[in-house]
Amino acid sequence: MFLLKRQDVEISSIQHPKLDQQVPILHYQGVTFRLISVFKANQGEQARALWRELTDNRGKACVLVEEPERYSVWGKIRLEQLDSDTGSHSKTGILIQASLLLLQALYIDIEEFLGARQASLFEKDILDLLRQRQFPQVSSSETAYNLLTTNPLQLAKLPAWQENHVIMLLQELHRLGKGYFGNANFANQVANTLQDMPSGARSHFISWLNQSPLTKLWQ
């Protein structure tokens, strides 16, 4: 376990070259790391689980830092990577991608843990939601099903949604997920669910999430 103490590392921040935000940077023994995820002081096991997933299963160079009030997981990065690590989408496009990944993760969990019948009911719930709230470019059950099954990171064109649609979707997703599972544990794995996103895009979404009212729902 590559577990470091706060006094072992130097943490600072730099301006992202493409996004209007500061990027947390950690320096340790001449190597630069980028913040991946933050956990509360009582979430040490979850922090270690993410660290093991990234290092053992994904082969990434990561460190886990134990601080007085939190744990933080950092991934190795070259600073020049920041120019290209947001992907090709706009800021709103990043929010749409991330929300669709969270939607698909919930759909997969429902099918895996509750069965095909509940997954079918969830499909209907999502279609009803998108229609009733008048989401753009969702006119049929086939379109809604594609949103549930097609990797948004591979879509050349994302739905023409705005930030308010993303907020609405994530609010309703939390409500639906809590109804299906009886708890909100599914909402505690945001950083892990979004691991396949470019790191800059993922950081942008998590930063946006933490500054929105949704942070109380999606931890």
Quick summary:
The protein has 219 residues and is of the alpha+beta class.
What does this structure look like?
The chain has 219 residues and is of the alpha+beta class. It has two domains: 3-81, Phosphorylase Kinase, domain 1; 91-216, no CATH class. Helix content is 45%, strand content 18%. Strands 1-5-6-4-3-2 form a six-stranded mixed beta sheet, with helices on one face. A hairpin with a 6-residue loop joins strand 2 (10-15) and strand 3. The two termini are 24 Å apart.
SSE layout and pairings?
Layout: E1 3-5, E2 10-15, E3 22-28, E4 31-40, H1 44-57, E5 62-67, E6 70-76, H2 91-114, H3 116-132, H4 141-149, H5 163-181, H6 190-193, H7 199-210
Helix pairs in contact: 2-3, 2-5, 2-7, 3-4, 3-5
